[in-house]
Amino acid sequence: MHNHVTASASEPWDTIIIGGGVAGLSAALMLGRARRRVLVIDAGQPRNRFASHMHAVLGHEGIDPAELLRIGRADASAIGVEFMDASVTRVDDSGEPDPGDLTVTTDDGTSYAARTLIVATGITDRLPDIPGLAERWGTSVLHCPYCHGWEVRDRRLGVLATSPMALHQVQLLRQWSNDVVLFAGLVPTLDAPTRTRLGARGIRIVDQAVVEVLGSGNTLTGVRLEDGTVVEIDAIFTGGAPEPHDRMLEAWSGRVNATLEAIARDLEPGRALDLGCGEGGDAIWLAENGWHATGVDLSPTAIDRARTAATARGLTARTTFVVSDLSTYTDTDTGTDPDAKTDDYDLVTASFLQSPVHLPREQILRAATELVALHGRLLIVGHAAPPAWAPPEHMRAVVFPTPEGDLAALHLDPTRWQTLVCEVRERAATAPDGSQAVLLDSVVLVQRTS
Ligand SMILES: Cc1cc2nc3c(=O)[nH]c(=O)nc-3n(C[C@H](O)[C@H](O)[C@H](O)COP(=O)(O)OP(=O)(O)OC[C@H]3O[C@@H](n4cnc5c(N)ncnc54)[C@H](O)[C@@H]3O)c2cc1C
Fold first, then answer.
1. pLDDT tens, 93-121?
2. Which of residues 60 and 333 earns the better pLDDT score?
3. Residue 407: CB partners within 8 Å, gap ≥ 6?
4. Does domain 252-448 have CATH number 3.40.50.150?
5. Is the CB of 55 within 6 Å of ligand 1?
6. Overall average pLDDT of the 320-325 stretch
7. pTM score above 0.85
8. Out of 3.40.50.2000, 3.40.350.10, 3.90.1200.10, 3.50.50.60, which CATH number does the structure's domain 13-121 have?
9. Which of 47, 87, 213, 348 is found 20 to 30 A from 240 (Cα to Cα)?
10. Which residue among 84, 144, 248, 249 is best mutated to probe the pocket of ligand 1, counting the most ligand atoms within 8 A of its Cβ?
């Protein structure tokens, strides 16, 4: 166990590596040799921990995976890399102590600052829920013929298809045995050309679902099918659904947009609607400042995070989050009584509605005017220019609005609307390299007067 870090904890690490498997240790060795201050934080659950031997690792054929990691740690420790046995639960781009720095928090609540981060946390293989399968993962239930094919060469081999990739896997496996059977019950029915192709290579196909993997201990003797038939085999190859270990990166990105904050701060709180609310940063700020805020976004994941953030802040009564396509959104989408449709938002905001994929922005903004109450305001904020660090090739498809263009697109009746702001504003920002930068925002604020 390494639960004591010797280097000064107050000074940021050059690099924190999350994950001390073979990937993290390789990075640690290289960076340590480059005289960087490196901390590896590892939860000690490498993907291949179910296997007792590793194969095809040069110089270490047949090594215990845990032993390989022990050697890797020893090599890196010898050149000053430090280790912490813990699980990282959160990563924040806190900018502390210096702009651009990151803060990494572990499950015991300790935080570490770093200038850079390497995430080498690996994956979990989610296997189909079939009795007898997961228990033999890494011994007689396998995934990679290059890692384990030699050990089961010329035996009776099965491939349990969990995705169309299995068609590739089963053909590969023919290199290791003449006796290969594909269990295709979990994937859509195979078409005739595929059956012909597999048949031509001597691969048998079983269409029934596998309901149980049979054997004693780690040894596998066969599988039972839906109708009770037993097919005798010695090993199964399958592909679990890969689940990346990246939850710690799912930081809530909800920071209020500075222009909205500057404008709404001086308004009497009322009902607010945020179109394209993302993870709810603006709506939650509005709710914290006395508004009843509704946020609408196309992304269920973003809305889910917004709701979670609102709940954590005790703001459920003041916030409503709705998953909806903005191009078809109406106020009735909130799921309340359709007859209770209101058009009385005191503030409707639409910030950074820009996308390289088609987005009927002007249509959405025009429809937004219909949702503004008498004396209410519509605020439109957009990126007026790309940030200085954006690669030009990524920006080609992005349209940058002008305030005059957005205002014109609203087709406002001048007898009913007053323009309060129509300008490009500068906003201070931190570039990815930690340097200070200026961004340009297009800002339009109009008020309904009658
Ligand atoms: C059953 C099986 C057998 C295999 N056999 C072989 C073989 O014989 N030969 C071969 O070359 N390859 C083999 N592999 C593939 C090999 O396991 C992977 O290629 C390798 O483990 C990938 O290394 P990694 O460092 O990316 O991830 P991992 O080895 O999975 O290491 C990731 C590390 O990050 C840690 N971690 C995850 N989340 C956090 C967090 N939030 N905070 C801190 N730490 C975290 C994990 O606990 C783990 O220690 C096998 C895989 C399986 C499933």
1. 777 777 778 999 998 888 999 999 999 99
2. 60
3. 419, 422, 444, 446
4. yes
5. yes
6. 92
7. no
8. 3.50.50.60
9. 87
10. 144
